[in-house]
Amino acid sequence: MKMEKEIRITNNLEEVSSLCTFVEELCEELGLSAETTMNINLALEEAVVNIIMYAYPEREQHDILLSATYQPQQLIFLLTDNGQPFDPTQVNCADVSSSIEERPVGGLGIFLIRNIMNEVSYLRLDGKNQLIMKKNI
Questions:
Q1: Predicted TM-score (pTM) of this structure
Q2: Sequence-separated (6 or more) residues with CB below 8 Å from residue 77
Q3: Which of 17, 125, 115, 19 is nearest to 68 (CA)?
Q4: How many of the other CB atoms lie within 10 Å of CB of 124?
Q5: Separation between Cα atoms, residue 101 and residue 35, nearest integer Å
Q6: What are the pLDDT digits (tens) for 60-94?
């Protein structure tokens, strides 16, 4: 069975709730556990919030597209935006061994996404950021 779904939201933090609903419905349809659903939601929310907060410094309205493809044993998420080029796979992971006070701000979201997803890759194509996240299920 192969399944594809997508959602288009704007770069507004209020849109994050519709993203969560999209993920919950998708995971429910696939019969995934509540824990897996929560983790996927967490990772995608982190990625989308980063785009909303940092990709468009001039605060114009832009679309963010999330497509989800299910194939046996794997969910593939493709997050596309036309914001500033940013490759999260090149960011150093947060040092989670040091104390909270010693850690630099940031990097935890990327650490979280890498921890939850089995594979994370990035492309800059036709002036768009494409973040590909694969989750084995």
A1: 0.88
A2: 40, 44, 66, 67, 68, 132, 133, 134, 135
A3: 19
A4: 11
A5: 29
A6: 899 999 999 999 899 999 999 999 998 888 876 55
